Amino acid sequence: LGLTWVFANYVEPSDYGIYRYVLVIATIASITALTGFGVAISRAITQGHSVDLKRILKIKIKFGLIGSVSLLIIALYYLWKDNTLLATLLAATSIWIPFFDSLSDYQYILQGKKHFKLQTIIRVLQRLTLTIIVISTIFLTKDIVVITFVYFAATTLSQYIAYRYTQAKYFKEDDAETPYQS
Known about the structure:
single chain; 182 residues; mainly alpha; 76% helix
């Protein structure tokens, strides 16, 4: 809500529309990163099965590259149509697609372990941090390319930190097949 208010008062409405459009396109492109894998992870952990997080992450990143290539093709289309702003935004966004959703699997690990409180705390901290970073970026620059890039970079970094924390807490480093540490 705060982020929307800042966008409404400090960024051109057309830039906000473009920002939202790019977020929607990125969300669609991230489907190639096998977004449904998380449910399988949660279920496997709940049932006590082994989960190889490193392998799952590699697979999801590999398939996420399809989304990246798709965004680059769309960016080339916009460049061909002389819309350099959308071409730039989509090309910059394509960098993050393989990682954007893939690293969010920590949530499903916590769900499988029934650690809903920790999951909620991490998500609230992520959203709060992301909001502060994007609002600060808006105040520093009104450039929608920079704002969008910072949004994806901050989101991906926060997902990575949460993923690594969860991995270190519940999985032994020397044995990727161990579902969690008791």
